Amino acid sequence: MKVKENVIQDYLEMIKKSWTWAKLTDEEKECFEKFLTYHPMVEEAVKGNYRQRWNSLDPIYHAFLMGCGYHNQLNWRENN
């Protein structure tokens, strides 16, 4: 059984294996990790059981990526 209080660290471990995470700059990665870990807005938004909390983190990460210029493009940040 997964511990709901660990969901943010579990989620970070998962996205750190993703291709989108690999395309972020070190500064962007640090910014997102700090936001998830310390921002009170996240604490207010991420509530419920483990699955509900996990499902709350998906749109937060997607919104962050959108702010970094990602718009569902497979070639996002590829060198031409």
Which structural class fits the helix and strand makeup? mainly alpha
Q: What fraction, in percent, of the residue positions are helical?
A: 55-70%
- Total helical elements: 5
Average pLDDT figure: 92
Please mark out the parts with pLDDT under 50 across 5 or more consecutive residues, or reply none. none
Strand content: under 5%
Kindly state the number of beta strands. 0
User: What string gives the helices and strands in order?
Assistant: HHHHH
Structure description:
By secondary structure, the protein is mostly helical. The chain has one domain (4-67). It is 64% helix and 0% strand. The chain contains five helices and no strands. It has helices at residues 7-15, 19-23, 26-38, 40-45, 50-67. It starts with 6 loop residues before the first helix and ends in a 13-residue tail after the last helix. The mean pLDDT is 92.
Question: What's the SSE blueprint?
Answer:
Elements: H1 7-15, H2 19-23, H3 26-38, H4 40-45, H5 50-67
